[in-house]
Amino acid sequence: MNDFWRQLKKSPVALGAVIVLFGLVFMALVAPLLAPLDPEAIDIRVRLTPPAWSEGGTSAHLLGTDNVGRDVLSRIIYGARVSLLVGVLTVLTGGVIGSLLGLLAGYYRGWVETVIMRLVDIQLAFPSILLAVAIMAIVGPSMINVIFVLSLATWAPFCRVARGQTLQVCNQEYITAAHALGLKNLPIIARHVIPNIINPLIVVASFALATNIINEASLSFLGVGVPPDTPTWGGMLGEGRNYLRIAWWVSTLPGIALMLCVYSVNMLGDWLRDYYDPRLID
Q1: Residue 141 is assigned to a structural domain of this protein
Q2: Confidence of residue 280 (pLDDT cuts 50, 70, 90)
Q3: In this structure, are residues 106 and 163 in contact, taking their beta carbons and an 8 Å threshold?
Q4: 233 located within any domain
Q5: For 81-100, how does the pLDDT look when each residue is reduced to its tens digit (9 = 90+)?
Q6: Report field, pTM of the whole predicted structure over 0.85
Q7: Which residue, 89, 163, 182, 225, is the most exposed by fewest CB within 10 angstroms?
Q8: Exposed/middle/buried for 98, CB within 10 Å: 0-12, 13-18, 19+?
Q9: ∠ CA 93-97-99 to the nearest 5 degrees?
């Protein structure tokens, strides 16, 4: 951990990304304390009120209101909960399933590898966002359905990486020595294989997190993600697109929040890739 933080402090971009992500996580965790107003409270009397720094703005709504008078700042704060929760849960679910399948394929080879990798090929043959939209249009919008659909689109990359890393590890001499000493498969996998394939999977997880945050926002933007009454960044973008000329803040401000979140995750993932490859570290 000391080396991790020492290397992290050498990269201002990665350190800034970590600070932004910690801020977003903190904002999501204490949303009821930070949000000035109820994010779902409708007040037509103050609809499309501009931000406080603009002409006609008010301190009661620092970032303005949307087309039905809901506070934009409060909805952005609560929207962080949905984006981060969906992103993390889909990566955990799809990542664990895909990594285990890739581990089995790379370690046992034979028909196990053939079946699993053909399933990966079938999965990757469908564009993930189109598959997600099609399934969500059938099953209907809900948080559970979004997590299930995005997990379904996430496991295949983890499986391919885990399988490739497992093949590489299983060709090492210490694996041959473990077999020669009479160790069974499960101890070998737990003690020698998993610890040596986990680092690349962490990097894959960081980029998958950014992708799934965007995918969740895309589904909500199209109206097939989480229920419309739940504050989400993608849903706010979709609701405000018809008011860009007269109320730019309704879509622009949640768009900036989404951009900062995804950019920070990508920058951290890029740094993690360099950190876990010793050839790229000074």
Answers
A1: yes
A2: very low
A3: yes
A4: yes
A5: 999 999 999 999 999 999 99
A6: yes
A7: 182
A8: buried
A9: 115
